[in-house]
Amino acid sequence: MQPDGYLAAYDALSRVDPPAAPARLAGWLRTEWRNLFAELRADRPVLATPAFTLVTRHADVIEVLSRPASFQVAAYRPAMEAALGAPIMLTRDGTPVNWREKGLMQAMLAPEDVPAVRALAGELAEAALDGADGAGGEFDAVRDLFRGVPLKVCARYFGFPGPDEETLSRWSRAIMTDVTANFAAEPGVRAASVAAGAEMMAYLRGLVAERRAAPDGTDVLGRLARTRLPAELGFDDERVAVNVAGLLLGFVENAAGSMTNAVSVLLGRPGLHAEAAEAAGDPERFDPERFDSYVWEALRFDPFLKMIVRYCARDHVLPSGATVPAGRPVLAAVASAMFDDAAVEDPAAFRTDRPSHAWMHFGHGPHACLGVHPGRVVIAETVRRLMLRPGLRAAGDVRRDRDVFPDGLTLRFDAPAREGA
Q1: Closest Cα partner for 377 from 168, 212, 157?
Q2: Which is it for the CA torsion 244, 246, 249, 251, positive or negative?
Q3: Which end of the chain is more exposed for a tag (fewer CB within 10 A), N or C?
Q4: Mean pLDDT score, 210-220
Q5: What distance in Å separates the CA atoms of residue 36 and residue 2, rounded to the nearest whole number?
Q6: Alpha-carbon distance 281 to 388, whole Å?
Q7: Quick one: CA torsion of 53, 54, 57, 59, rounded to 10 degrees?
Q8: What is the pTM of this model?
Q9: Nearest 10 degrees: CA dihedral of 44, 302, 339, 52?
Q10: Residue 379 or residue 131, greater confidence
Q11: Residue 165 φ/ψ, nearest 5 degrees
């Protein structure tokens, strides 16, 4: 916490060393975001810097995420499309590619799959935790559980196993580091992403061809392989490969980061840990809605996705009355919006009875998470299986890459899982 406040320190630095001020602000956003956002919401809810505009109040954040004509996803386009070598609907607003392929992929990620995906995540989590039990109850939760389960879901539900799990993980991290965390535009980070993307797309082209030749299976790629659209729509095998790549890139890092943060919050508050463990219950008493709310509320206190980037294409007046000027990135601070007392009741309290719109972990507006239905249950069920382990505790701090991506967290539990989990 800055002695005289963040804004006073930022303004003073802006006067004597203008280029250094946005860099200092970026550092606070990584390490002191909660206190910084509270001060900004109260005193300067829209902070315009030479490098970006930061938006912190709930109504303004919703506006930024809901108005693609003004606030575009183009900020993500150079890195993402350099890796894929092709357009992808995740980085396009109001285009035929976005309209057509978003709708198709929503059909492929059917909400009816949710019970089976939840069961799959539970099965995978139990296998990982049973392995830890055999090793004395100590394990790396990020490697074995928070990344391990999503990577296996990619293989068994998306139909995208990669040559092996380690390679799949490497592709995801290299590309998403450039897309979401290469703040200094380091050329080496871009080069690593492009190289990983080229490997991934070459693999996927071969995989799509194999699945087209034998179009069976109920995984997502199997459904795509059995789908033939009219040629004039341009959804050929290359487009299938690009969209399957998007499933991996939109899922693994976000799911792993979200599970790491939610579990860290719950384990850091013994009373909440006990409540969540009780809510996890067993199959005869288990209420998914009751338990899952512990995960989403824990994640509100430390969301993995704290800001969503847009590019302001034209001057836009926000609900607060501030004008965002065209021509610069806009950081829509969802982590701040979820603590705005103008929209969220008693935001400082941990409450599991909140309406679902109080939680913005899957974004908002036309670019809200495409895979929200399966993604939600993979995260929640993996955390639930962990909460069922008696004696669970952290045996160290989270280790992170670039202060963003979790790379390790040692956990311990003291006894076997409850019967009937």
Answers
A1: 157
A2: negative
A3: N
A4: 91
A5: 9
A6: 7
A7: 40
A8: 0.95
A9: 30
A10: 379
A11: -65, -40
| Greatest CA separation for the chain | 66
Contacts for 321 with CB less than 8 Å, ≥ 6 apart: none
**Residue 170 in 3-state DSSP?**
helix
The two structure tokens encoding residue 54: 């930061």
The C-alpha atoms of residue 180 and residue 80 are separated, in whole angstroms, by 9
Distance CA 202, CA 204 (A): 6
Give me 399's structure tokens.
């280790």
How many whole angstroms separate alpha carbon 271 and alpha carbon 261? 17
**414 DSSP 8-state letter:** S
Q: What is the pLDDT of residue 420?
A: 47
Distance CA 126, CA 149 (A): 10
Separation CA 347–CA 56 (nearest Å) = 14
Residue 416 is predicted with a pLDDT of 57
Residue 243 · residue 105 · CB < 8 Å: yes
Nearest to 290 by CA among 358, 421, 380: 380
Q: Above 70 in pLDDT, residue 283?
A: no
| Residue 226 near residue 378, CB atoms below 8 Å | no
> Cα torsion for 10, 12, 15, 20, to the nearest 10°?
-40
The torsion defined by the Cα of 333, 338, 343 and 346, in degrees rounded to 10, comes to -140
DSSP string computed for 154-215: IIIIIS---SSHHHHHHHHHHHHHHHHH-TT--HHHHHHHHHHHHHHHHHHHHHHHHHHHS-
Smallest CA-to-CA distance from 161 within 107, 217, 110 is with 217
